[in-house]
Design a protein that fits this description.
The chain is mostly helical. 68% of the residues lie in helices and 5% in strands.
């Protein structure tokens, strides 16, 4: 089995096992959400996105659409459920807001249950996994050496798209979702691919001392994160190498932008709940949302400004341009 096919097969088996177990539950969607089905879906989406940029674009794009639908649906459940649980423990948040978020979470769970049957992941006509496997078997898989070369080219293109995005914005963000979240999402895939590819991407350690401007990114949380440990490369002979410190810097940026994004979304979700549960206009709802979020809550403009500041520094250091160090072969 070619390496690319084996990677898909690994995560399809994980997803298949979860789907089988969920089919025996009263609420399959809730069970899948609670049992981390989002992770194999993320991996499959990443692989499909990556290989759509290398070969068989139509085939892999279609696979990506199917798994992304499920991943997005679970993400919607997580969005409302996480805030509902956070607010339930905060006596300052009105019960009407928490109740609204809980209701939205239940609604998203029901939507996922319907999607699972409609898209043939579960139910009497469930054959989505088998359809995906048939498509994968017909793909034009490359041998290991050419696969890694194509992977390098894909990373270069992905990095250039990120740089184009930030240049077009000229480091000026006006919307948390469209700017901060989108920029973070583009960079996050660069850190997801190594996990999805199961070993053919490894980190390269510099032989010289770490520059001071990179040292600030090497926090204990970043260097010790399991997501920054590359999968075992046993059996592989060719590897794409990424600079370890630049990869850590990338991970730090993703985490910091995530914190800023979540802070902004906290205000947005409270505002949404207020608009849906009370007779108030948007300006009044936003003002109350800030108050309910707490004294330490940043304004949306402060969040946007903060994201701009760290992006400017990260960009100036050319961390993305220096991320790829080359291709290596084992002896």
């Amino acid at each position: 089995m070619k390496n690319g096919l084996a990677r898909f097969d690994h995560y399809l088996k994980q997803l298949e096992e979860l789907l089988t177990k969920s089919s025996k539950q009263k609420n399959p969607a809730l069970w899948l959400y609670q049992n981390n089905a989002r992770t194999p879906l993320f991996m499959l989406e990443g692989l499909a996105k990556l290989y759509a940029g290398i070969h068989n674009k139509k085939k892999f794009s279609k696979i990506k659409e199917h798994v992304k639908l499920l991943e997005d649906a679970i993400g919607q459940i997580d969005y409302y459920d996480a805030f509902a649980k956070e607010f339930a423990a905060n006596k300052k948040i009105p019960k009407e807001i928490t109740g609204y978020l809980q209701a939205q979470s239940r609604e998203k769970i029901q939507s996922l249950n319907e999607l699972l049957v409609e898209k043939e992941w579960l139910g009497d006509d469930a054959d989505r996994i088998e359809k995906i496997r048939k498509k994968l078997k017909k793909a034009d898989w490359l041998d290991e050496k050419d696969d890694v070369k194509s992977l390098q080219q894909f990373y270069v293109i992905a990095i250039n798209k990120i740089l184009e995005f930030i240049n077009e914005k000229d480091f000026h963000f006006t919307d948390v979702e469209k700017d901060v979240h989108e920029f973070r999402r583009m960079m996050r895939w660069l850190s997801i691919y190594p996990q999805a590819l199961r070993g053919c991407i490894q980190l390269s350690k510099s032989k010289t001392a770490t520059p001071k401007y990179l040292a600030k990114y090497l926090t204990r949380a970043i260097t010790g994160s399991p997501y920054n440990k590359m999968p075992d490369a046993a059996g592989l002979k060719h590897f794409l190498l990424l600079d370890q410190n630049r990869f850590y810097a990338l991970s730090w940026m993703i985490a910091e932008l995530g914190n800023l994004k979540d802070s902004g979304l906290k205000v947005e979700v409270i505002k949404e709940a207020l608009l849906q549960t009370s007779k108030t206009n948007e300006a009044a709802a936003l003002a109350k949302a800030y108050k309910l979020a707490g004294a330490s809550q940043k304004t949306l403009q402060q969040i946007l400004d903060g994201a701009e500041d760290i992006c400017k520094i990260f960009y100036k250091e050319k961390n993305l341009e220096s991320l790829i160090t080359g291709i290596a072969a084992s002896k």
